[in-house]
């Protein structure tokens, strides 16, 4: 089963099947000028997508049941569990100053209540490895995958899920938190709602398979239940919303109980929802996909924005993309100005400073990525010049990796990874981003 | 549930609950003199017992079902998956020339037929790490733990088990075999038979729990079946015997198909079965516990002997230990001459050269270990002087580790491991063995 998409999401198929006849003159408006001192320039990864052999995670279970929604299992991924020093060296060599990565709850708490000193030591070494190289470590405490025991307890439908997550955050921060530069709790906890709001037809098609897949996954771990954090029915997405918001807040407070001064936020999946012929429809989409979260994060140190697309809304639905648009691997529009649009909205709706915690494109044609980066950053700089506080930009992704149900098909990396030798090789776009980072200007 | 034992075995409780009034004058007979040039002096470990977080293994399943026969789960063990360089440094620093360790099938073949390049690379690095330090790597291809999918297919009761194991051996040798110094296929495949033969009363007590435990383990992995390689009913032990022998031979041939000149053997659990008032009883025990295997290995490059105890047989059963005997952690006799007795028998019955692949004692009193090592080696040297070809001696174990159902209670290490920092600290006995190794003489 395949969902076309122009962004990388957990179940993949996100928004932006369509676009209005608006032409993309935006990039020509970009002003020259430096980014603020201390602007975070980075690349992002996630544990399950690069480490390999994350066998204790919910995703591994879903990847290996038969039949599976996944094109292939993650297996070795990029072997970053062993080769993380090569990843850090790559970030450094490009001239970036920040590395966003996640720690794997499935490894750190392999059994409920049993915390692995060995695995905490592992991630502490990664964080210290960043510092030794002069890189700022931005740590995602949970990037989608949860321990399979957590899924077996009902995942985020479990009323105890917020406190289970908070305990993990507290223990992890106590062990490895000293050198963390920036923290996020959850990655795209609004993703399921966004998908149900912006591509309901695809989700309705998928809906019938969720039940049998969950049942098979539950059986395979000897449980009655199985809930992942991002592959879910609409009613489940509504059910987990308050628990995930409570989980973010409890996790944030747990992290700050150990390191009160550490800046903590949450990363949200935000498409640039634009008005076609219906502001009402656009506003409804915003409200359903982002409203509760942008309300919940008011007062946070920052909000993480993860953007890959725009949607142009008419009363009848989304507009089609313009014929001349650049396309990503699945044929969807690549629209550089969408990032600035999402950032403006996130800031306006939440009042928070913004960090772009993900932005990128899945494509085998690196010239598209190399063009997208300066174009999107020019638009972002415009928004900043208008007064939107933006603290950093993390490109998704440092390296080609395991793209969830799409397996190793889509290529989002600034560098390729040889699937046999695991050798990383930067693409030209990596140097485009690196040059901008080193100059701190486009 | 606890089984007293003076040796480390998979389900723990091995032989030697008893001993005759024979006094241990043997060590006084030891001749001075050097061991042969090139004698292998080493220490031994096993992946599951030291690596930690071997979550894809059959043992992890059995450790984490509730109730469990295991005192505690293995969790981080000694964190040797990350700290293997510290282990190699320790072996080197003691003056030993060989390191016996195992590669984890559960990691290398996480799903049936899917071989992990990342994990093969991992063990290749360990092997190369030995060579860089001038250590000879002696590799156990399977030290008890199997992938849980293998257990779910019925373990060694599965008629296809020999070919599944052989395929693993072939793939592993192809990837990482170039620098291996010595190889063994299986570790103590005769253990269950030995336990049923030498301590039938304990095994009969355990027997009723095997069924429910296996059923619970099977349910927890969504399978109909579950069979571990060493925790089994008598009828299962008899059923797996031909498959394990076939597995050893197929594994050996697979290894040699890639590296024809590599010496390959199998390690057998062999107590020194002595005659009390009944040679017939002793011979019956030998036949049932070792006979088929010592027959099967005829023509092999060597046979690995793993000895921890003697049993003195009377028509009525085993003799009690003499009152003045040294005792191990569980109160059983420590009898230094048992090693030489087992080695003599293994050579005589198989015709093979011998490598002592395990020998040691579980005790909190390191003076017992420090005394055992030279005493047992003096007896071994006598046997060698008599003409028994012995190629090396691997002490069990390099470091304190996870002792199967007994958890972290019994201490077999030449070095302690801090359970929080994982720091290794050699005990005095380690230097006793090291001095002998460096002098190549007692």
Layout of strands and helices, then pairs:
Two copies of one chain form a homodimer.
Chain A: E1 40-44, H1 47-50, H2 58-64, H3 80-94, E2 98-102, H4 105-108, H5 117-132, E3 136-142, H6 148-152, H7 161-176, E4 182-187, H8 191-198, H9 200-220, H10 234-258, E5 264-269, E6 272-275, H11 279-296, E7 303-307, E8 310-314, E9 317-318, E10 326-327, E11 333-334, H12 338-350, E12 354-359, H13 366-385, E13 390-396, E14 415-417, E15 424-426, H14 428-439
Helix pairs in contact in A: 7-10, 8-9, 8-11, 12-13, 13-14
Keywords:
442 residues, 14 helices, 15% strand, homodimer, three-stranded mixed beta sheet, eight-stranded parallel beta barrel, alpha/beta
The portion of residues forming beta strands of chain A comes to 15-25%
List unreliable stretches of 5+ residues of chain A: 1-31
Q: Summarize the main sheet of chain A.
A: 8 strands, parallel, barrel
Mean pLDDT of chain A: 93
| Oligomeric organization of the protein chains | homodimer
Secondary structure tally: strands of chain A: 15
Structural class of chain A: alpha/beta
Strand order of the largest sheet of chain A: 1-2-3-4-5-7-12-13
> Greatest chain-chain interface?
A-B, 27 and 27 residues
**How far is the N terminus from the C terminus of chain A?**
40 Å
Shape type of chain A = globular
Helix and strand sequence of chain A: EHHHEHHEHHEHHHEEHEEEEEHEHEEEH
> Helical proportion of chain A?
40-55%
